[in-house]
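Q: Two folds, back to back.
A: First:
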Amino acid sequence: MKASLPFILLSSLLFASCSTSTPSPVAETITIQYTPAAEPWLAALYDCAGSTVVTADPRAADFLDPQATDLVIRLGQPGSLASTAYKIGSEDILVIINRQNPINTLTPDQVRGLFGGQIPTWKEINGSNAAVQVWAFGSGEDVEQLFVQKALGGSPVTSMARLATGPGEMLQAIGNDVNAVGLLTRHWKTGNVVDVFTVATVPVLALSAKEPREAVQGILACLQK
């Protein structure tokens, strides 16, 4: 017996509806801004994000805009920042020199003298007779701001200092010059440099200018474990 035309059409429609795949859910996206000093914390953030897509934008501390992003990751002091701050770690700010430099340690007064320009040669602190080459970061960077505040008491770094554009350049500059001195965070320290003074241990902060979305709350909770 031949099947009727309506039955064939109905069967075709049912087959088509059963074979249609369910659309995959669209992954949620969050945006973050971070300073170069806080870059080592991105790996943990990506792990905590899971399937959430993270768009990351590196910026100097002075150009961070918590209103325009979900989270800002930076070094700082919670009481001095307007946004809600969540501590996700801690970081040491170090004074570093080349591994071949015979100096083993520096005092707070020597750090102030070197970076302030009052100690122009290493001979004055029992080193060689070579001139000291100071390296610093731009005044807009969080690590530089904290260094000036905690090590120099608010006084400026010598105008003769060379400026590194980021931790990578600082690491390379000090590693290539036995007479150089600079500053770096512990998570960035590697290679041909040694630390001779710990300026301070400061919190690594995640800042939010508004109530975090559910996905952001999950990432914050994960980072704070």
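A: Second:
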Amino acid sequence: MSHPLIAASELESLEDTVTVALKRHDTSGLNIVGFGELSVALGWPNSAPEWVCKRTPPFTPSQFAHYKQLVGTYVDQVRASGMQVVDTTVVGLQRGDRTVAYVVQPMLAAASLGHNVLAACEPDPDHRFLTALADAIGIVSTTLSIDAQVTNFSWDGSVLTLIDVGTPMMWDDNGKFLFEMDPFLRMIPAPTRRLVKWDMTKVVERWSDKRQVAIDIVANLYREGLTDWVDPTITALNRGLQPIKPITASEALRFYEQDAKTWPRLKKLQAAQRWWQTMVRRRPYDFFIHSTFNA
């Protein structure tokens, strides 16, 4: 069933609240559902959320048009592959010459989210969620993929539904990643952006490989404190990967440890850029830095 679209006035109120939070470096006035590496998911209204609103950095009008079109195309292609995707709309709010985009979805029951589904059960390689997750890796190709971490899915007991579509995993026939990173790279100092973009381009290439996607799924279990599920998940995923070389726990742990070093470095660059923007240039910094301080 389609969920009612959020009213423009609701998003305006949310953005006003976000503006205050960014200015004060204080997220206490926000209902934070979760932090991603590039965005923050906010429940709205705060007291009784009906929607999850994932906020992007400001775009130029042409960048926003490209982003909105890309997310729509991505959702269509994932659904065409046979996978369910939660109702999603991309809404832009004009702020001067820039557009702040919100990826809006209905608020789902917390118990239906993949990591909570696993946390509520005894580890079992035959759990139907894991079986469905292993099947989902079949979507992965050199032109279309998914960020298949368990946190990115909802499970109703029989149907797996993809939630995370804000970073469309799509490449053209020449291997070019179609998601435009430049608006997001404004979160870090200008001299570092080219190198970080190169590094991130190499990182996302792993999502076009089924085996690497499976390793990433298991690595995320360490981050979520679901280590008891590592071996059962590996068993389930390896069944689905056949005849591809099986993945191992040691590979996933190395992958997790590598990410555990990479993302804090990015947050330090963000902190440096925010200091430059707010203290030197006296301009707003439009990104959240959750691992360093509140906002």
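Q: And?
A: The chain is about 45% helix and 15% strand.
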